[in-house]
Amino acid sequence: MNDDQFEGKWEQMKGKVREHWGRLTDDDVEEVRGRRQNLLAKIQEKYGDTKEAAEEKLVEFERRF
Fold first, then answer.
1. What is the C-alpha to C-alpha distance for residues 47 and 24, in angstroms, rounded to an integer?
2. At what angle do helices 10-20 and 51-64 cross, to 10 degrees?
3. Other CB atoms closer than 10 Å to residue 55's CB: what's the count?
4. Which DSSP state fits 57?
5. For the segment 13-56, what is each residue's pLDDT rounded down to a tens digit?
6. Which of 3, 24, 34, 35 is deepest in the core (most CB within 10 A)?
7. Residue 40's closest CA among 23, 53, 25?
8. Count of beta carbons in the 10 Å neighbourhood of residue 15
9. Which whole-number Å values give the CA distances from 21 to 9, 40, in the listed order?
């Protein structure tokens, strides 16, 4: 999913993001504001993942969404 697609589907995805990544607070999700890079940064921060690992997790999530 490219950045434009991600941003366009953000409102639909927010609830699923909260369910999937339980360590992200509501404030974290709101800070993302539909920007894929922001979500990657939050996943890295909260889960201690490398950028590559966070990217893999997000790609898998996008496939299922």
1. 9
2. 110
3. 15
4. H
5. 999 999 999 999 999 999 999 999 999 999 999 999 999 999 99
6. 24
7. 53
8. 10
9. 17, 11
